[in-house]
């Protein structure tokens, strides 16, 4: 929360703004709210966990802690991950749990204010991917799908 | 008066006193004339009252006071212990416990006066005439006075300048303070305060003495100094030189009101102190002072043995204990875990031939040394965290007594192995499951008294609670000589409830039928009682024990009784494990559950019900192909033999087929996090020496 306040203080304009990390998954660009992000690490060998949810690729050792790693691609119904030099694990903290999210590439950090974020109506979408898109952000003429990271992780376990 | 820093001591000690009173009353109920027990209870009640009073908990003090009165009457032989009285006393204990609970939770005793209990208590005393109480009290105080008087006389008789300052050496300003007080007709006393030798927290008691004296008198000097007293650098007595305008008796009683203070003997200082005389006395003192100062900056190690020696010389073994917050121990445990991971890293780095590695003999030796140290360190930390199981099970005799009354069945609880130790975190969790099992035995197990007589069993039912260590496990058994489990009725009930079909019931083994009891919402008690029968119970026990990494087993003989055993791992955090390889993946299996490791020729595999089994030393052991169970990718290499890890759970065996063995390793168990769903057979993960992660297979779930 301190982060949010700090950002608000800096941009004393009429609207609030939030920073997003822009990542590439498949051919699309997604934004992840920076407040949930603990860390970004290079990809490393994943230990497979048998009989778990298909979108959990397994677990990794992050400085002595065991962290489950989730494939957003499988979760969103895309092609399976291909691990390259650019593959990164975004370590997010949600609801007291730490989880790694696999992305193809980390591009940049953007600051979006409220004006440039458009809510999407989830009800109109039957697409699996759309369920986890919170809103669409516009930055430098490009569209970024902003991920509902909490929904992605918390709901996932309930299904 | 600020007593908050003694709150924890107060809570701990009150609980201890309550427990010992409760134990005592249990004994008294059976042997009402046991004088030793009566005295013990009286002492405990008295200390409890004193402590509550010191801490300012008036309601608690009142209740204890009335309870103490009853005990006092019993002690004096004016009334005898009856079963009714025990009931009231237990109610009283419950009320006191709830005070202590309140204090623990919000530092306040609450507003419940428990007047009905006080009334009931007083009714016992009034039963023998209203004055008895006062008389007894008077006698007591008289006795105390009588004790004091001779001492005072003695002191007066031997009054001389030396004696009146016995045990004290005064500095100039202190002498003049004494003289000044005497001039103003203020009394000066040299008081010897004795602390009970069993007292563990001498410093705290002494502190309370000082605190309580505040406002009543002025302390000119103490021997040893207040600082030394606070640091507990004194034997079982210390001296105070005070000036006061109050009666010395009231001062002495203030000092004595602090619990565990054995005695306080005042000597009045009446003669003015001679300024001349002090000088020769001063000199040796001055010599002493620099000497003590020199030792102070010197290393503490030198001082400590010195301080300990006299304590040993005193003849009484004083246990040196430190109370430590459990959180600090958790931190310590985590650090030990990290150290072990780092050590494993070092071991694997030294063996890594491809990247150079280190092959020097000296290095290997040092690594081995490090391994020994970390293993010992881990064991020591574990031991620090261990607590005897007694703290949980000590409340059960009382519970069985209540159950006996409530269910109108006669029963006795026999406990063995209460000194068996378990990790503190396990101890905290284990109370409820054991309680469930005892209730279960009392309610479902033991037959009503008339049935027992009919069956030729002893009228009084027996419930035995046995705890003991077995290998790396602790086993807790609850055994009764009751009815045993009627498997036919269990099956019928399960069919009736739709849990199983009639066919399933017919083909069930005895053991499977018993296991039905552990299914959720299953109770065979025909009537729902306060005690059990609501269908929550054994399944809760099972899930709780499994969450702690243990398991529950039942043995029963219909008509003769049943035994429920809980098996728990000694440690939860760090275990010795066998590392095995399946394809490219590494897994750990707890060494505690491994019986043997065998090389078996493929030709020896037999089939029973289309399942693979092997014959080994007379027993038939089912094989479990871990590769298939864990969906390991790839195909195993063709080979004439297979490696089988034989694991045991209770008296069942199973053979786990693995590709190859890596070796034994000390591993730290880590959880996988809450959002990833893991199969029951994976009990956690661990970090290997090379930084990679291996999953831990819980063999218990496979057998």
TrEMBL record, chain A:
Domain CheW-like intervals: 17-158
Listed GO CC annotations: cytosol
| Gene3D superfamilies (alphabetical) | CheA-289, Domain 4, SH3 Domains
Family annotation (InterPro entries): CheW, CheW-like_dom_sf, CheW-lke_dom
GO biological process terms, semicolon-separated: chemotaxis; signal transduction
Task: Check the record and name the SUPFAM superfamilies matching this protein.
Answer: CheW-like (SSF50341)
Q: Which PROSITE patterns match?
A: CHEW
SMART domains tied to this protein: CheW
Where does the sequence pass through the membrane? none
**Identification of the protein by name:** Purine-binding chemotaxis protein CheW
Q: Which organism is it from?
A: Lachnospira multipara
